[in-house]
Amino acid sequence: MYGMKHKSELSFPNTHKLLKSVLIGLVVCLGLLCLYYGWSFGPGSRRSDEEASGSDGSDPIFGGFVLHRDFDDLHEDQEHNSEVPKSLPVCDLQFSELIPCIDRNLIYQLRLKPNLTLMEHYERHCPPPERRYNCLIPPPPGYKIPIRWPESRDEVWKANIPHTHLAQEKSDQNWMVVNGDKINFPGGGTHFHDGADKYIVALSRMLKFPADKFNNELDRLLRPGGYFVYTSPEAYAQDPENRRIWNAMSDLLKRMCWKVAAKKEQSVVWAKPLTNSCYLKRDPQTQPPLCDSDDDPDASWNVSMKACISRYSAKVHKEKGSRVAPWPQRLTTAPPRLEEIVVSPEEFQEDTGIWRFRVIEYWKQMKSVIQKNSIRNVMDMNSNLGGFAAALNGKDVWVMNVAPVRVSSRLKIIYDRGLIGTVHDWCEAFSTYPRTYDLLHAWAVFSEINERGCGAEDLLIEMDRILRPDGFVIIRDKPAVINYIRKFLTALKWDGWLSEVEPRVDALSSSEERVLIARKKLWDEGLTAM
């Protein structure tokens, strides 16, 4: 009996311990499973290729197609091709204003440690491949087709940009006014009491420009003789901190050889020198120093800024300026810096003519569906020499010219033509607000990223993010690329209107091309998010 009792007494505590251990183990396993599936299948999350390789190598959100396949292998009809989805998931509404590479939440999630003093938290921090958003960014509730230009300069739909706090916080400065279902922008603020247009006229008068208009827009960016305008609020005129900043800036710019071209009240205009003469006369110990001779002033993508002054080339120094033609002649005149990218004036003129013809053909294709002033914000995703933008000069639009990283040196030609642009790697998200552009033009962009091993699917989703509802995409590329992209149009809701043609072969055609033009639908309010 003693032996039995002893065994029984010992068995109860062991049973409790065993049961407790099992329960703890189950809780831990359940937690790990929730963490895994919540991370892998949550809105916008993607498993890495390594994690997916244990199954069929498919993406959980795109519904089974294999990433980074060659376009030539994907010619099967969509109904028989399980790799191409008939629909794509919609992100949660909390992501309606997502800019993937400028996402403060991502910084915290990845446990990055940016230098706040240097404002590194405002720099681009793109999500790694396994954290990219694989869903369509939804518009905010009540979103409407944007008001057309030029009325859109002064008013927008409140539902499209649901941020009215500035109207309350700065109500005395007239920045913005909520007016029913619209937000109005009367102009004003601490700088522009009478509106920005009158402020610009005042600056023009300070510089004695004819007809009160600028006829030419920090050191590395400015042309020889270019202007830098600094304005501080009148209310801060006697503020000690404001005066300290002013004194420090004046001292710095004097050491950089900039000269005051005009000054009135709280506005000052500095002019950059035309030659290297002043730089060469400085004391060798003067700060900031001249940049090393092997520094490339054109390098701008993922390059740390240096506190040094880029000297002019021997040609610019000798000619005392960039010698670009005045506007609007500079738009079609071969700029002097063409020789720096090994392009002849004849090639430049041929490029200009080809794009003039191409744009005419594009507009013929879209003539039946384009309404007056329905296109204002345009992006050329592979700007080359800026011919596409130049060909749009007669239309009331503006163009963001994007020079891919591999040809970033061509951005200087964009600016020499009087256009605006930036450098970008289309394997990453573009730094702009969702639903920004009315028209996206992609010439050979998909072929280029495919050669680098980047996914066309990622780029399509990014293009959808920055394209407005009712907006157009013009994709000009190889037939295999167009055939592949066409399969995604319904899933992307880009089938509001379609046109596809085989264009005329010209000197810019590296091979046979197709032109696909598609229109994005305004989403149904009933669409459910992930």
Automatic annotation (TrEMBL):
A Gene Ontology biological process noted in the UniProt record is:
methylation
Query: How is the protein disposed in the membrane?
Result: Single-pass membrane protein; Single-pass type II membrane protein
Question: What are the transmembrane regions?
Answer: 21-39
* UniProt EC number: 2.1.1.-
Its Gene Ontology molecular function terms?
Answer: methyltransferase activity
What keywords appear on the UniProt entry?
Glycoprotein, Membrane, Methyltransferase, Signal-anchor, Transferase, Transmembrane, Transmembrane helix
Against SUPFAM superfamilies, the record matches this protein to:
S-adenosyl-L-methionine-dependent methyltransferases (SSF53335)
Write down the InterPro entries for this protein, in alphabetical order: Put_SAM_MeTrfase, SAM-dependent_MTases_sf
Q: Which GO terms describe its cellular component?
A: endosome; membrane; trans-Golgi network
Cell compartment(s), UniProt:
Endomembrane system; Membrane
| UniProt similarity note | Belongs to the methyltransferase superfamily.
Q: What is this protein called?
A: Methyltransferase
Lineage of source species: Eukaryota, Viridiplantae, Streptophyta, Embryophyta, Tracheophyta
